Amino acid sequence: MVEAGSPRPLAVRLGRTAAGWADALDQCGRLLVDTGAVGEQYIAAMHERERSLTTHLGEGVAIPHGTTASRVHVRRSALVVVQFPGGVRWSDGQQVELCVAIAAGRRDTDGSTDPAAARHLDVLASLARVLMDPVRARELREAPDEATVDRLLRSTEEDR
User: Fold this and answer.
1) Which of these is catalytic: 47, 56, 65, 73?
2) Residue 64, Cβ neighbours under 10 Å: how many?
């Protein structure tokens, strides 16, 4: 596991299966709970978000996350990666093979935002660059180990 202070996954689970998108969301949410990033209520908020708007991005990748209101359940900003090699039919009917689940943007009582939340923008930017390259997107979906996931999420344009 890697701490959430950098744009790296807090946890990575490879080779998983899911009965459908709801099961996949439960697995992602449970991993966020188990790592201490969020409270149990965040899982229900992830389902609420998915029912209102799909988190499927394309290229077999989804970025499940909670609603704006669920930020109160975020203890610390984090992201986790869960790979489903056999694919999961997502809420929009498309196949998803990789979920990058995010818990970000916790606001403290003084209104300030967890500084680690801003770092997740770096990960999302890297993810977008990977997804624009079909070869790298496939490499991410089929990653054989955590090191490959980490390398791809931290990649920059110069790495091409």
Assistant:
1) 65
2) 29
